C-alpha cells in the first residue's frame, strides 16, 4: 500500500470524497484507489503548490481507467491530427511537421491517414512491447503510429470481414520499404497461432529479402530503393479475407488454416522498372540480385550458370558502383536462397530462377554487328557465337534458332508471312528503346526534363488521388447516413477531368499516342504533339506553345516539343521526345516463340504468347495501353477493398538525421496532396466522437453533469453544450456520436476544460490539505499525550530505582560493618594484603616455572633494556616487541670471523655491522663489531681482520642520545692494552688508551648496549655507566672533543647522521 507522509492512507470517507472529483472509472475503484501503485503520483500532485499539475498528469494504471476516444491535446507535441490544424495553410502544416520531427514524433494523422517522416535513425518505438500496446487500443487512444493503422486494418479485416488495402506513398528515400516491413511485421505478430499459421507468418517475413533482391536497386537518392512500386502479390487463403499492401504484399487474414501462394505469382504487368535491367544512370546500380548472385554463389554454381565472379565482365552492370556501403552482397545471397526455400520454392525452381537471372546477364554481352544481305538491304549478325551458344545450351535452343530470333522479325498476315532482317539499332537491347521508365506510381514526379516515364507515373497518381477523394467522401457519406445527419454536397476539386484528359477512350492522350504509333505513314513525336494541340486546344488543363500563342501568352519555359498538364499537385511540363519509341513494344513475336520453344520450364511459363496454338496476328499492345490496363486492374482492386493510407515524406536530400528541409517537404506535401486531403476530411464536420467518451471528457464543464450524472449519455452531452452556449450550426447530434464542425469549437472546449481542471485541482488540493492538517494535528495531540504519560512514568520508575539501589547499598554497608566487627578478632591486621601478595607471588612463580632457560634469558635482557632505556631513549618502544637476535651478519657462515673470537671466549653475544665515526674529520667507515664475554672486537668488513680489540674491563662507560638514532660513544679507561694475547691476536696490539674513545653508529643500539651492559657486569662485577644525553665528551689522543647531537627536520628510526667538525675541539652530529 502506498502510504502518505503522515504514515497512513486517508480514511475511506476522504478517499470517496476525493474520488468524486475524478473521472467516473476512478470513482468505481473506491477505496482500492489507494492500493494502486500509482497512488504516490497522486499524493505528489496533491502536495504540489498552486495546482501546478493537472488531473491529466495524475493518471492511474492503464487497466483502471478507460482511455479516451480522441487524442489528448495536453502534453502532445504540436497537433497530432492535421484535421484540427488552425489555420489550415501550407506554412502551419510545415511548421507542425517540423516541430514534431525535431521532437522525434515522426507520425502525424490526417483522420485515419498516417503521415510518416523518415527519421534516418533507429527509434525506440517498435518491437513486441509496442505491438502489444497498440493491439489493445483503438486508433486514436495512443500517439500516432504506423502500428495503429495496421491494427485498425487488421481489426476491420477480422471483425467486419472487409478486405483491406494499405497504400504507402512517397518518393524514393522517404521510407516506404521500411513502412511496409513494419506493417507486415505487425500483422504477422498479431495474427493467430498454430503450426500452419506460423508457417505462413514465417513465409510473410521471409518474403522481404526476396522482394528486395529482385525488386530493389541503388539509386542516386536511396541505396535500397524499391523499383517495383506498383507490384501487388497475394498471400491468401480460400474464402478468407485478406489485407493488401500496394507496396508490399497481400496478407491473409490468418483466421484459420491457410495455404500460402508464392509472393511472385502475380506481378501487375508494366509497373516494374524494366529499363533498369539494360541501363542505369550514373551513380546507380542494377537490381541487387545480379550483384548478389556473382558475389555469393559458390564456384560450382557459377560454373553451372556459366558465369564469372568479376562484375566488370557484364555490360548490364554499372561498373562505377559495383558495391554499396553497408551492404554485403554475398551474405544477402545466402539469405535470399534461404528465404525462397521458406516461401515454398523447391530447389529446382530456385535453380531455374537463378538460370534466368544468369541468362539476362549473358544476353547483355551478346555483340551485334552490321551486315548486308545479297540484295544490299542492311541486316545484322552475331559477332561472337560463343555467347549465343552458351545461352542456347542453358535454355535448350540451338544457336541458329536463337540468332534468328534476335536478328530477324516475322510479320504474318492472313495470307502470307514475311521475314524481315533487323539492323543493329533495331536489335539493340534497351539502350535506344526503353520500354518503361521509373514507375514509382506513389511518388508524384516533377523533374527538369519530364518524359514518358513521368507522364505515366503522374497519371497513376491522378487515379490514386481520385480514389482517395471518392472513397473518403463515400466513407463520410456512409457515416452521416448511419448517424442520421443530412448530407450536404461538399465542394472539392474533382480531378476526374484530368484523368479523362489522359485515359479517355479514343480522345485521351494515351489513345492519341496509340493511334499515332499504329497509323501508317510518317510518324514522329512532332505529329503526335500536333494532334494533341489540335484536339485539346481549348481544354482548361492542357497547355502547349501552340495554345499559348493562340491565346497571346508568352512562357519562355515552354519548349516547342513540350506540352503541359495541370495536375492536382501542380503543373508539369512533358517533353514529347521519344514518346512514340517508348510507347512501342519491341518484344517481337519471334523472340516470344523462341523462348516458348526453349527446354526451360520457367522460360516457357514467362512467354505464353509464344505458343503457336495461341498465336495472334494482332500487333502487341503498346506500353501505354498495357500501363493503362494495369492501372485499371489496380483501381479495381482498390475499389474492392477498404483503403488505408500511409504518406511517406523525405525530410532532406542527404539522408541525415535531425535535418528538416522545409522547401523539400513542401514540395512533397504538394505532390501528396496533404492540404487537399485535410480539406476533404474537414469538408463536413471536422471532429466526431461517441457520446460516452465525449461526456466523460467534458462533463466537468457543467454543474448539472458534475460530479455525478445519472441520465443518458446524449442527454448529458446536450446539457454540457447547452450551458456553454455554442452555436447550433457548429453541432450535429447523431444517433451515437456528436459532430463538431470547426476545430475552433473543439479548441474552445479544450481550453474550458483546462481552466476547469485548474479549478478542480485547487479544490482537491484544498480538501486534501485541510484533511492532512487536521489529521496531522490529531496525530500530534495523541502523540504528545502518549509521550507525556510515558515520560512521567519513566521518571517515576527511574526515581524509584535510584531509591531502591541506595537502600540496598546502605544495607550492604551496614551488614558488612557488622560482620567485620564480629569477626575482626579472628584475623591479624593487614591479613588481606599479605594474602593477596602471597597469591600474586604464587602465580608469578607458576609462570616462571613454565619458562625455558632461553625464554628466561630473553626476558632478563628485555628487563635490563627497560631499566636502562625506558622513558629515556625514543627508539626504545619500537624495540620492545622485537626479540633480540644477536647475530645480524650471518656469523655461522663466516669461519674467519669465528676465529677472531678465540677458543676460550665462548659464544659471540652480539655480531653486527656498525659505522665508526672519525673523530678528527667526521667521516665514517664500516666495521664489524663482535661482542664476546670478555672483549669488544672491531674488524674490517673487507679483510675480516681484527682492527681493534677492547677488553670489557677497559670499557669505562657508554653515552647515547635520547633520539631515535643509533649513535653511541664508547668511553675507555686512559691506559689499556688490547688484551688480544689471550685471543691468539698477538700481532694486533695497540695503545687504545692513547688513541682515545670510539664514536659508533648501530641499527640495534638498544640490544647492543643491553648485551654489553650485562657482559661487563658478568666479566668485571661492575655496572657499566650508560649516560643518555645530547652532549658528551670524547677523548681523542691527548685532546678532548665535545660531541653535540642536533635534531634535524626529519629525524626518526633509521635516521641518517651527518657529522660536521666545528673547530678542533667540537663535533656536531645532525640527526636527519
UniProtKB/TrEMBL annotation:
InterPro entries named among the record's database cross-references: IQ_motif_EF-hand-BS, Kinesin_motor_dom_sf, Myosin_head_motor_dom-like, Myosin_TH1, MYSc_Myo1, P-loop_NTPase
List of residues binding ATP: 170-177
Domain Myosin motor: 77-754
Record keywords: Actin-binding, ATP-binding, Calmodulin-binding, Motor protein, Myosin, Nucleotide-binding, Repeat
Signal peptide: none
Entry's family note: Belongs to the TRAFAC class myosin-kinesin ATPase superfamily. Myosin family.
Record protein name field: Unconventional myosin-Ia
